[in-house]
Design brief:
By secondary structure, this protein is mainly beta. It is built from two helices and 27 strands. The chain has helices at about 85-90, 195-200; strands at about 20-25, 35-40, 50-55, 60-65, 70-80, 95-100, 110, 115, 120, 125, 130-135, 135-140, 145, 160-165, 165-170, 175-180, 210, 215-220, 230, 235-240, 250, 270-275, 280-285, 295-300, 305-315, 325, 330-335. Strands 4, 5, 6, 7 and 10 form a five-stranded antiparallel β-sheet that branches. It has a four-stranded antiparallel β-sheet with strand order 11-12-15-16, with no helix packed on it. It is globular.
Length: about 325
């Protein structure tokens, strides 16, 4: 196809293993609001070992080794025909999807949807998931609309604000182990970044005027206690969730920070936890400055204290997206928008 992505190999790293990419086109079917995508598996030398074309938007093509030692390839696939604005009150573009699971030979195994009463196939939020095996995973959704919103979120908007909740659930053997609903914690509303006008007001945005006041963008398992670490961009907070009860354990950063963090991060992405109590993240705004950075923090969860171990200023501002994680003594950084 004419829109096949062009690869320009300029060097080779020292880490073995293939690279997985998801690339989409905004031009091929722009009139129909489709975003055709390619998934690529590429060798360190730049040789294409596998590719797949999809007719809609794809995110996060990844390889997973399951808890039962199986190789799986996963990706989020938007479905604008199935999950349309009429059914859910939101624009499905970049918002609603399913997870597609393939085996080690790229053969289709299953589609995963969010489990919700009265819905055979409830849409998944396409930023991140935790996949243990074919019968055990954690996924999120944002398809539930919120009707009661505190007055202080209204700002100068002349009409009532509309918002969506963040839902997270762990599913094992087709049963919901626990579920988290952001509306169970009213104090999250006061954390919403008031400068997020694109998501709040614009009917041209991907949320059609609905505010995604939490905006989940990463999940990771804390290797120390196996609970869930979540990055919520629009409240500039990292939140820990108990995987037995689904309840909130603590909040780091933002307006209701419990660790007395003085060096604030803002609109962050990709919070990753490690065995030594360290968390790394991609700090998009460093609070109120005009550049982004990598942050490495060490938490004492019992005493609710935090120490900033290291920061790396990146020299430019990435207003959205981006990731950072430790690779040995270095950081692997992907710049965002």
């Amino acid at each position: 196809k004419s829109d096949f992505p062009i690869l320009d190999v300029t060097g080779q790293g020292s880490i073995n293993g293939d690279y997985l990419f998801a690339a989409y086109s905004c031009e091929s079917e722009e009139g129909s609001k489709k975003f055709p995508s390619y998934m690529l598996k590429v060798s360190p030398e730049g040789k294409i070992k596998y590719f797949r074309w999809e007719a809609d938007y794809v995110l996060d093509f990844q390889k997973v080794i399951t808890t039962d030692n199986q190789i799986r390839y996963l990706y989020f696939l938007a479905d604008q025909d199935k999950f349309n604005e009429t059914d859910y009150g939101l624009n499905a573009q970049l918002v609603f999807s399913k997870v597609v699971v393939m085996d080690e030979n790229y053969n289709f195994i299953k589609d995963i949807y969010y489990k919700k009463a009265n819905y055979a196939e409830f849409p998944i939020e396409m930023h991140d998931l935790v996949y243990f095996n074919d019968n055990h995973y954690i996924v999120a959704s944002k398809a539930r609309l919120i009707s009661q919103i505190p007055d202080y979120m209204e700002g100068d908007k002349s009409q009532p604000m509309k918002a969506v909740a963040c839902l997270i659930q762990e599913v094992q053997d087709d049963n919901i182990v626990w579920e988290f609903d952001s509306t169970d914690y009213a104090d999250f509303y006061q954390c919403y970044s008031k400068d997020m006008s694109l998501w709040r007001f614009s009917d041209q945005s991907i949320y059609k005027g609905y505010v995604d006041y939490m905006h989940i963008n990463s999940m990771s398992i804390d290797p120390n206690d196996q609970n869930l670490i979540i990055s919520f961009r629009n409240i500039s907070s990292v939140v820990k969730i108990n995987r037995t009860t689904g309840e909130r354990m603590w909040v780091l950063g933002g307006e209701i920070d419990e660790f007395n963090l003085t060096d604030k991060f803002g609109l962050q992405h990709n919070a990753v936890s490690y065995t030594d109590g360290v968390i790394t993240l991609f700090d998009n705004t460093k609070g109120e400055t005009n550049y982004s950075r990598v942050m490495e923090l060490k938490l004492d969860e019992q005493n609710k204290t935090v120490q900033v171990i290291n920061t790396v200023d990146l020299g430019i501002l990435c207003t959205a997206c981006g990731s950072a994680e430790k690779v040995g003594n270095n950081y692997l950084v992907c710049f965002g928008v």
